[in-house]
Amino acid sequence: MAEFDLIARIRQRAASRGDVVLGIGDDCALLAPLPGQLLAVTMDTLNAGVHFPPETAPADIGWKALAVNLSDLAAMGAEPAWCTLSLTLPHADAAFVDGFCDGFLALAAQHGVALVGGDTTRGPLSVSITAHGFVAAGEALRRDGARVGDEVWVSGTLGDAAGALRQWQAGAPMAPVLQARLDRPTPRVALGRALRGIASSAIDISDGLLADLAHVCRASGVGAEIDVDALPASDALRAAFDADVRRTLQATGGDDYELCFTAPIAQRAALEALSRALALPLARVGRVVPGTGVACAALPQGTVGYQHFA
Amino acid sequence: MAEFDLIARIRQRAASRGDVVLGIGDDCALLAPLPGQLLAVTMDTLNAGVHFPPETAPADIGWKALAVNLSDLAAMGAEPAWCTLSLTLPHADAAFVDGFCDGFLALAAQHGVALVGGDTTRGPLSVSITAHGFVAAGEALRRDGARVGDEVWVSGTLGDAAGALRQWQAGAPMAPVLQARLDRPTPRVALGRALRGIASSAIDISDGLLADLAHVCRASGVGAEIDVDALPASDALRAAFDADVRRTLQATGGDDYELCFTAPIAQRAALEALSRALALPLARVGRVVPGTGVACAALPQGTVGYQHFA
């Protein structure tokens, strides 16, 4: 099977959209941006053995590679539209590509995202995706908008993906609920969209709450205090780890792809209503304070999230 | 050195543009598309040992990774604007990143391209770039516009990069002129822009003239005949290889990133004037004929260009 057969295999399954003038198959895709909107663009790469265990199912790799990109659009408050995919494979493996497409295209369909182009190359297993979305100027959820007095919120539950990873690293079976969070994260696209005009800043939690919130603090010129006992935990995480390990996973575990955002106190009622409307828990976990950095009394000083190369 | 230090190192050197509302450093870049224009998007990945020899200078890798993407924009007739970069490195290597940026940013500056975001990850050396440009609807140079009776043209000289690669594979020193073509290809951006309204179709030569022209033929529902003796050769290629090897390199060698395009006979004078204006040789090398496939009498039947996985 040659490169062009792989591309044809992906192409015949990819859905399109009305704003795709020319999709897969030319030197470039030609796309019609939504007039009056900004284009939000993000690019993330997942490498086998670094971002997912090598034995991860191809469908899960496909899902996750798109999910982490849609999560960045969500954290910006952007509406997903298009993506490009670069798939690097050790050898042309039709079964892998079919499985990959199962997960990738299922998530793309959920969010109306069209795959419009990309590349297939030979090399160690790696997936790069660039995702594009729209957001009106002035409505984007940036990292630099947190203000002293705002409250810090997170969606869903924290630490689940890191819990699964810890079990895997220990050679133990992964709890199914935790593994599902690691393999098939849910990008909080509807939440991001709904937070426009409510949140003062947002970021998705890919490297751990403390590390990611620290980016918001740095960009906004503020500090933050986190109440570790307020961090939401799933029943599965509570069942799998004692309280000390669990707290560390919640505060520093990456890969959950929940949103962390700040909002004025006056938005509490709006956020509680939003939580009900989306059937998604939203928890108040701290506050924005003067100063720098993120304080979290119950954890050892210097505790941070995941850094590549660190 | 951690991931964020690498990103900071790149960020502080990256130039911006007036249409970049938010560049490197948030969950997404925020970009203002040019009103009334289509967005042209392309994504290409280069892997060490597959797309370039592992010992290639970092500056050359940076240059080439951007060049192959700008070449796709050129082949579409698009005006380059923005790019995102995903850099995968075995370890956080500041000297590599500095060298990479030297080449990458030098080419970006030549074309007014802003680096607006991306990713840095750990893994085997690999570079993915997504490039964005603008082109008016109806002016894009697509692969499906070749018509029977059109002539086939190519820019520059062919086979140089493949000649360098052949020398390297044979363990011989690469001729400097040929090596420069392999390591630092020139994306034909100005030519692509000028071909709007003149060329009926275009493609960049990344996998070899015969293979790439075959894509045009397939998309356009036509065939093509190539006169191998009309293919342009550099003096360096003539000096390095005998005529038979040289012809094969010219017809099938990839990595030159010249443009192959078709145009009606009536455009001959315009193309000759354009060649003079750009100081870039443009050679008529064949014609579009009824049927399918690319015929090239002087080469063995079935000769094609480079295919990954093949």
Plain-language structure description:
Two copies of one chain form a homodimer. The first copy, chain A, is an alpha+beta fold. The first copy, chain A, is built from ten helices and twelve strands. Chain A has helices at 3-11, 58-76, 94-110, 160-169, 176-183, 189-194, 209-220, 235-240, 243-252, 268-278; strands at residues 20-22, 29-31, 38-47, 79-89, 114-122, 126-135, 151-155, 201-204, 223-226, 259-263, 282-289, 293-295. The model of chain A is unreliable at 306-310 (pLDDT under 50). Strand 2 of chain A pairs antiparallel with strand 3 of chain B.
What value does the average pLDDT of chain A take? 94
The end-to-end distance of chain A, rounded to whole angstroms, is 39 Å
Share of residues in helices of chain A: 25-40%
Which blocks of ≥5 consecutive residues of chain A have pLDDT under 50? 306-310
Question: What is the gyration radius of chain A calculated from CA atoms?
Answer: 20 Å
The major sheet of chain A is characterized as: 6 strands, mixed
Q: What is the chains' assembly state? A: homodimer
Structural class of chain A: alpha+beta
The global form of chain A is globular
SSE succession of chain A:
HEEEHEHEEEHHHEHEHHEHEE
Measured by DSSP, the beta-strand proportion of chain A falls in 15-25%
Most extensive interface, chain pair and sizes: A-B, 72 and 72 residues
